[in-house]
Amino acid sequence: MTALTNLPPTAELQRLDAAHHLHPFTHGAGLRDKGVRVITSADGVWLTDSEGNRILDAMAGLWCVNIGYGRQELVEAAAAQMAELPFYNTFFQTSHVPAIKLAERLAQLAPDHLNHVFFASSGSEANDTNIRLVRTYWEMKGQPQKKAIISRWNAYHGSSVGSGSLGGMKGMHAQGGMPIPDIHHIDQPDWWSEGGDMTPEDFGRARAKLLEDKILEIGADNVAAFIAEPVQGAGGVIVPPETYWPEVQKIVDKYGILLIADEVICGFGRTGNWFGSETVGIRPDIMTVAKGMSSGYQPIGGSIVSDEIADVIGGGEFNHGYTYSGHPVACAVALENLRLLDEEGIVDRVRDHTAPYLKQKFESLTDHPMVGEAKIVGMMGSIALTPHKESRAAFKADAGTVGLICRERCFANNLVMRHVGDRMIVSPSLTISDDEIDTLIERARTSLDEAM
Ligand code: PLP
Question: How much is the pTM?
């Protein structure tokens, strides 16, 4: 049985899509001129489209299908939970078994002092929760003036008005009234593009110092939190110099500022540990989680918060929540996903084998004439495209165009890689095999050749 036999022809699907479907982060002209590629099924790291093509998904969907596609156990977990209790809420003194068990499991996996979970259905919702959570925390502690949240330019923390404001995407801020008040941004630790003549080490320290400068400018008494991804994902997989995070940790400790680690991409094995915070050696007060928590099989996210914050918030009522906070089906699927990631040793294998193998292959692309640096942490990496490696020059006149051409060549070669400006990104499922990594790199190289 193949689902393909029941589908309308691709052209008809494309026409209907263009007629009725508004897409996220997609230029309308492209949809009208070329039509979408319609994905119909998936298995492992392979997508199948409506024409029957098999496409290697080097992005794990949107950085989320950590366990790979087609896991029947997750289908069964969802079906069993739907039959047992398809929905109940967690408001007004009620709870249910999947939410209780998932909160317990997340507390076990997270760093020792993070033992409390506020659920949401996405990373955006979870970061909106965080804005209110940190401000409410300081209010309840008698410091209501501590409202400012510092973030970084080019960070991505979601698309809602709150989380989009936390993010540092200027194109997003330009649409729809962002940022909201009391959100501030500092420059990112992107040595390749912005490091000039500095060594990566000096640059990492200098970019951390910007946080201290910003805190002093606003006044430490007015600053609630600093939020950052351990490794920036959607901004282009910006791997910070090793000197960056230790300095940042010292600064937030020195000034009594809460640290929010946005682990939406970095969490659940992506960086070679359960959480990116472990990989970069920080001690956050809150971690934002989503994506890999359910491997994308169900929409779920959350904020994992410290005992200290939970104690303070628990002293009153936090007037916040989503209908689907702790949705039972999403929780059941996430629990099963975490069980498989653990019991099948998938995260361990990433650390011990898959990530080192991918790193070696991925870095081999630096001998390509158009590739500057190739940086990878665990299972998330990016290559910087450049017309001149030594000067780390950008394709300035037509920034992003070369990346777009590369992405389109990849797609034509049945490989999904993403481009962010002139960076090409990979973030495959953690279960990708060595042979599949070889295929990924071969197809990437061919696509780069064709884009030259
Ligand atoms: N935070 C980070 C680091 C992300 O990468 C994303 C999405 O890509 C989000 C938050 C938002 O998550 P969602 O798209 O589930 O709302």
Answer: 0.97
